Request: fold
Amino acid sequence: MSVAGNYAILGGPFDDQLGANSGSVHLFQRTTGGDAFTFAQTVYSPTPAASALFGWSVAVNENGDVAIGARGDRVARGSVYIYRKSPDSPLWTFVDTLEPDVTQDLQNVGNFGWSVAFGENILAVGAPNEGVGAEKHGAVLVYERSAGNTWTLAETVVPMDGRQGDLFGFSVAIDEPTIVVGSRNATHNGLAVSLILWDDSYLHKRILVLKSFPFFCEP
Reply:
């Protein structure tokens, strides 16, 4: 689920309407001058597939931009679908598909789209199983808004001291210009790593350790 401004969205990744676990997303809009939200639209993947889990992760910003993660798409390589709402229309329309592969390994099961987060001009996408062999520690791909309201890959962020199975990118959040990344299975000096922070240069800045809650990075 994600809420921003006048918009709220709910993911239904196990929806079977277009195939087993193909997924769907339900969009809501705040009523004029009120605090209630009314149902506006249900969207499905433009390329539906069984087990794609479209709606596994969702994000919306105050402009009405919507990012939908389908971490099971492309045989679990994953995809993210971008929808946009025109100010003069009550409905959202599909505008783009993001489906890069950090390693360019077509057999890699990176789960791109496991997590997504929006800022006003930044989109972060987690791929916690990205990598090859012993380097399969996860990644976060950072996109910036460019002319024409398209999203262009600006940076691929990987942990400085990543290890196999860290699940870096398991969760992400943005408060521009800071990006927060959860690395669910990582450890630092024997303790569970809760959050990893980047600033607007996307350089590794700080590791926050939370000793008592090893699964603090759950989305």
Remarks:
- Confidence is low (pLDDT under 50) at residues 190-194, 203-217.
- Residues 67 and 82 are 5 Å apart (CA to CA).
- Helices lie at 73-76.
- DSSP finds one helix and 17 strands in the chain.
